[in-house]
Design brief:
The structure is a homodimer. The first copy, chain A, contains twelve helices and twelve strands. Chain A has about 325 residues and is of the alpha/beta class. Chain A has three domains: about 45 residues, lambda repressor-like DNA-binding domains (434 Repressor (Amino-terminal Domain), Orthogonal Bundle), CATH 1.10.260.40; about 130 residues, 3-Layer(aba) Sandwich (Rossmann fold), CATH 3.40.50.2300; about 130 residues, Rossmann fold, CATH 3.40.50. In chain A, the strands form two sheets. Chain A has a six-stranded parallel β-sheet with strand order 2-1-3-4-5-11, with helices on both faces. Chain A has a six-stranded mixed β-sheet with strand order 7-6-8-9-10-12, with helices on both faces. In chain A, strand 8, helix 11 and strand 9 form a beta-alpha-beta unit. The longest helix of chain A is centred in the C-terminal third of the chain and has 16 residues. The N and C termini of chain A lie far apart (about 65 Å). The mean pLDDT of chain A is about 95. Chains A and B meet through helix 4, helix 5, strand 2 and helix 6 of A and helix 4, helix 5, strand 2 and helix 6 of B. Chain B binds a DNA duplex (16 and 16 nucleotides) through helix 2 and helix 4.
DNA sequence: CTGAAAGCGCTAACAA
DNA sequence: TTGTTAGCGCTTTCAG
């Protein structure tokens, strides 16, 4: 009772050739109304549906899109996944989600895999991948969209426009008298460094803030790493008056640590996150953060991917603007 | 420069037939050490890798597993996805995530799709699907695992063992003098009703609690529905002293509403969730909840799926035990 | 232990 | 406007 109905069966039932059935389905060739009706009749009489696997083998392209992220359990990526799926479903694409754990080996392997599988495209948030790792897959003509803070050469990119937001956040800190600012940044060995950290240090001086080298700690984008980083910072001889975190999950980790250490936020120290996942407004104190809307990022990524699938070849970059959201933690 | 290297090329390079290459790869037939070495040499000299699409066409089964959930942006399902992916990756399976929005039409369509795509299996959290909707796909021999509170006939099932936890939770309410208990339950038209609600009403009387019919409201498993449900309950002539929610997201919605209404939790009213997603311990007051560990559910589901793929045919049910977690909201 | 060959179900030339 | 046909790259009988 499985789908044992092939195009051949339909063709026979409709008294045409299987090619005609194919053309009725794809519309790639004019077909008489009569034959069309006859074929369509046979199709739903027999309950036929096209075998996507055979089709993929023949055309060399599947309807699968890979979404490669560090961790789908991270709310930012979960929401990103949701919005990409929503955008792509209409066009019949399925989304294969894979987790890299931000590990370079996994990032490479999953990109390879997308190539072998002849996926229709890849949306990826790389952390440690070499910037030239896209050569092979782009050489195979598989569309790639990268979501990252770092500029990548020759690849479609969705990236934040966050200069203004960072300036706002730091202006806000300065206004409340916080001068000595620390940063819980991303991993030291991330490809292209940590642009979020870069933006902060770039603007600090002009805004009257100081980011001492010893007040910069590195770690993964996780809650645990955030807690660890915060504790490290609190050992500093000159305790910072504010901590800016690479994302909201690390900021939550910092709050965990602050609680353990008996430090009050924002009394003893101001805390800022990045992304504005739902959790940011749910924790207490509510977390001030630089909002980078996952949903919009996903929409943009899906858009770029579809454009490539539809034939665009010149790489494009979409900047999603980030905003400072002031809440109780700063 | 794409993967234009086929088994034929490898065969020629190794001076054997493509059948032999296939057998070297699959190990389904004994092969001399000499030929094996020669083939393996050719394989990595040419950078060959097997085309999964051709393989799927031939065998009639792909290495894709469908994960069909209401909303991957819901932390419970995100974590479920993560753990399933972790379990399945080792065996080479990829996970295709789809969102149903808990809509029956989508649930049916996505199940169908898994059939057409010849997926290796399906893990599904159904809400409104008819219980006999699995016939077709099971008839096609595609393994299915359902994660649900409701018992489903003839399908592998991962389901909570929550009687004890519910009794604990309600005992706790009774002990703190809450007698009049309300429930924010799942949708009224869910397949098999709402077993979480069922468990509550089943135990209420024996524990000295009262769940009045007008204190049961229905809605989706979302934050918004939770807020709406809570507001409805607060209009009740006899305001309940405790509210039990079908999951943590609805409980968070209830907290949203409580704040708007100026009600104190747990002072004016106790609040309980269900699942224990990370957010439960992050909101204030921290949410008491009935912990149903998504990670374990995912592991069990993956296990069941693999067993089926490996040939088991008799349906199996795994019960994951739930526990009451007492926090500040009750 | 190895090879030859027949397809899996579809698409896209090429003919008619 | 339609049909014929040759594969896409693999697995798996059936012979050797």
């Amino acid at each position: 009772m499985a789908q044992r109905v092939t195009m051949h069966d339909v063709a026979r039932a409709a008294g045409v050739s299987s090619a005609t059935v194919s053309y009725v389905l794809s519309g790639k060739r004019p077909v008489t109304d009569a034959t069309r009706r006859s074929v369509e009749g046979a199709i739903d009489r027999l309950g036929f549906s096209l075998n996507p696997v055979a089709r993929s083998l023949r055309t060399g392209r599947s309807m699968m899109v890979a979404l490669v992220v560090p961790d789908i359990a991270n709310p930012f990526y979960a929401l990103l996944a949701r919005s990409i799926q929503d955008e792509l479903r209409g066009r019949g694409y399925h989304v294969v989600v894979s987790n890299t754990g931000a590990e370079r080996g996994e990032e490479e392997a999953l990109l390879q895999e997308a190539l072998h599988q002849r996926f229709a495209g890849v949306v990826m948030t790389p952390f440690r991948l070499a910037t030239d790792a896209y050569e092979a897959i782009r050489g195979a003509g598989i569309p790639v969209v990268v979501s990252a803070d770092t500029p990548f050469c020759d690849v479609d990119l969705v990236t934040p426009d966050a200069e203004g937001a960072v300036v706002d956040a730091m202006t806000h800190l300065a206004a409340s008298g916080r001068r000595n600012v620390a940063v819980i940044a991303g991993p030291r060995d991330a490809t292209g460094g940590d642009p979020r950290l870069g933006r902060i240090t770039a603007h600090a001086a002009a805004l009257g803030l100081q980011v001492r080298p010893e007040n910069i700690v590195h770690g993964e984008h996780t809650r645990e790493a955030g807690a660890e980083g915060f504790e490290k910072l609190m050992l500093s001889a000159r305790r910072p008056e504010a901590v800016m975190c690479v994302n909201d999950m690390t900021a939550v980790g910092a709050m965990d640590a602050a609680e353990r250490l008996g430090l009050d936020i924002p009394g003893d120290i101001a805390l800022l996150g990045h992304d504005d996942i739902d959790i940011a407004a749910l924790v207490r104190p509510r977390l001030s953060t630089i909002r980078y809307p996952a949903r919009e990022v996903g929409v943009a990524a899906a858009q770029l991917l579809l454009e490539q699938i539809d034939g665009r070849t010149r790489p494009r970059t979409v900047r999603v603007v980030a905003h400072f959201v002031s809440r109780a933690s700063s």
